[in-house]
Amino acid sequence: MRKMTESRQIWSASQLMAYIQEIGFLPLLDSGIWGYSAEEVVDDECRYVVFSDGGWDWPLWKWKGPIVQEGNCVYGKFFACKAGFVSLDWWPDFCNYRRSKHPAPEEGSIEEAILLTLQEHGSLITRELRAACGFNGPKMRSRFDSYITRLQMACRIITEDFVYPQDRHGKEYGWGWSLLTTPEQLLGRDACHCERSPEKSYQRLLAHFQQILPDASQKQIERLIG
């Protein structure tokens, strides 16, 4: 198992996919731990750049969709409310522990309504989901987004893909929107089931993070495990 302290230069989505499979967990952007993010392991040419005409390019950002679509990892706001990847090999334990810390939403709650709406439609981009749940009033967007983030941290909502608007020439532009769904809908119920107890899953996660992040403090690791 490669440790995060070892240098790495990644040039393509396929290389990043392989790296995620190797280490199991990878935040997209700065995690607070030196070297531990997709942004830091890709080559400089794959990072965000702004051109003189105001345009921009960010290969890493564009790789998210193909990586998620490949189906070997799960993407969402899992790490201290920040986005990142979890390999399918580690997803059952991660999901098992996180859901034990964040039980299923109570009947009649907003969180339950969000999940039921997603289950009914299969998948929706955030603004469609927000409208379907009736969050249309002023200042509702940030409030709704906080519910979505909590449900992602609880491993109950994930990102299926990314949807981009198109200009009149059919060219995609902008930052794109997350197409949200439930893990059961995308991966199947078996992928979200773990035979171990939540405590045993936690111990496996702890040992793994200590192995790949030997210089991280206990507090930093605990923050990642959630």
Structural write-up:
The chain is an alpha+beta fold. Helices cover 44% and strands 15% of the residues. The chain has helices at 13-23, 38-41, 59-70, 91-101, 110-121, 126-132, 140-153, 183-187, 198-212, 218-225, and strands at 25-27, 49-50, 56-57, 73-79, 82-87, 124-125, 158-163, 177-181. The strands form three sheets. Strands 1-5-4 form a three-stranded antiparallel beta sheet, sandwiched between helices. Strand 4 (73-79) and strand 5 (82-87) form a beta hairpin. The longest helix is centred in the C-terminal third of the chain and has 15 residues, at 198-212. The protein is globular. The model has no long low-confidence stretch (mean pLDDT 91).
Q: What keywords describe this structure?
A:
226 residues; alpha+beta; three-stranded antiparallel sheet; 44% helix; 15% strand
Oligomeric state of this protein: single chain
Query: How do the strands line up in the largest sheet?
Result: 1-5-4
The N- to C-terminal Cα distance equals 23 Å
Number of strands: 8
Q: What is the number of helical segments per DSSP (H or I, 4+ residues)?
A: 10
Tell me the major beta sheet: 3 strands, antiparallel
Molecular shape = globular
- Element order, helices and strands? HEHEEHEEHHEHHEEHHH
**Share in β-strands:** 5-15%
Query: Which secondary-structure class do the elements indicate?
Result: alpha+beta
Backbone CA Rg: 18 Å
Fraction of residues in helix: 40-55%
TL;DR of this structure?
It contains ten helices and eight strands. Helix 4 (91-101) crosses helix 9.
